[in-house]
Design a protein that fits this description.
Rossmann fold; alpha/beta; globular; 280 residues; eight-stranded mixed β-sheet; 18% strand
Length: 280
């Protein structure tokens, strides 16, 4: 009996220790900051957000349209600039390097990313009234929350999840993550506030985000609001390499432009040409 009690006590101590380790190290397991590897033709900019100086990768474009991009947890967003420029040739592309990523100061948290995204959107939207917001993987949670509070014209979610808490719970089922996880990124909470037409791109063989999680988020939208495209043979980290990925993005952009032409003019500036947005 004493041996059984001793073993049970040892197991309990190890379990509590692992829970404590998960709690205090969770952000190092979630965020993997990457340096910025700029190509020879890429432009850089900076943006003040609260106490942080954030780095941006920008493809300047005159006109009323822009694309605001939020990347994955281990992504150097600069690497996505070339394909996005191809898919959205008529839009200024603004890519945020999260706090701690690509030379940005500060540390990433769900709250700080949310605040940074809102401030950046407001700056971009002031000069470009038609802003598509796009998120990939972790960035879909940032994009979802932003789209629920800001007038985005369209929303693109690449390999999204219903809740990061649910994704983590699948990986660590023996731990009470509902009580341990700080940055839950519960995208489902923000669906009712999203009014923009939405494109969801899923990878057929996504090994990180389960199909069930992506489809659960999709099913929370009104059917007429969301378009759902599965990229064949793609995995979580190879989806952006597939030709069907670029075709889907380009078609969604064309649909956005057509819808804008059928609506009221985007801005009453007397026909004055718009200049690319200047950052700090």
């Amino acid at each position: 009996m004493l041996t059984l009690i001793s073993i049970s006590l040892a197991v309990a101590i190890v379990y509590v220790g692992l829970c404590a380790w998960l709690y205090f190290s969770q952000r190092s397991l979630l965020y993997f900051p990457q340096p910025r590897r700029l190509g020879p033709t890429q432009s850089v900019a900076q943006f003040n957000s609260g106490d942080a100086l954030l780095q941006l990768t920008v493809s300047p474009q005159a006109g009323p349209r822009a694309l605001l991009y939020f990347g994955g947890n281990g992504e150097d967003v600069s690497g996505s600039l070339a394909p996005l420029t191809e898919a959205f040739p008529d839009r200024e592309i603004v890519m945020l390097h999260y706090r701690g990523y690509g030379g940005s100061t500060g540390r990433p948290t769900e709250q700080s990313l949310t605040e940074d995204a809102a401030r950046l959107f407001d700056k971009v939207h002031a000069e470009h009234p038609d802003v598509i917001v796009m998120g990939t993987s972790l960035g879909t949670g940032v994009a979802m929350r932003l789209a629920s509070t800001r007038p985005v014209s369209r929303l693109i979610l690449v390999t999204p999840y219903d809740s990061l808490l649910e994704v983590a719970a699948r990986r660590f089922p023996i731990f009470p993550l509902r009580y341990l996880l700080i940055d839950k990124f519960e995208s489902w909470r923000y669906v009712p506030g999203v009014n923009a037409p939405t494109l969801i791109l899923a990878a057929e063989h996504d090994e990180v985000i389960s199909t069930a999680s992506t489809e659960q988020l999709r099913d929370r939208f009104p059917a007429r609001q969301v378009s759902y495209v599965v990229i064949p043979r793609a995995t979580h980290n190879t989806i952006s390499d597939a030709p069907d990925y670029l075709r889907a993005l380009a078609a969604f952009n064309v649909a956005s432009a057509d819808a804008a032409e059928q609506s009221a003019p985007l801005a009453s500036d007397g026909g004055a040409p718009r200049m690319p947005l200047r950052y700090i």
